[in-house]
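=== RUN LOG ===
request id: a7f3
mode: sequence -> structure
chains: 1
length: 85
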Amino acid sequence: MTDMTNTPTRETTKKRHAVRAALSRHSVPTREYYVYFAVIFVATLPLSFLTWGLSAARRMELPSRGPIKAAWSQAQIITPRIFSA
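=== RESULT ===
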């Protein structure tokens, strides 16, 4: 007679994998996330400076949101979209 109480079945193994997968999706950002964020931030900086400068020249006043803040918010929007795909 075999003892089945300590041997994991396929169902318990599948449940364990499903729980681990769900937890890993909502985990703390990793180094890879920060690398992508930095690359996107640096890539959006020139365009945000250009947009900020053109907006300032057109209105003859400084926009309320600076170019670095605009690039930062763009990176915050784009990076999670890459990781959720």
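=== NOTES ===
Helices lie at 10-25, 31-59, 67-84.
The chain is about 75% helix and 0% strand.
=== END ===
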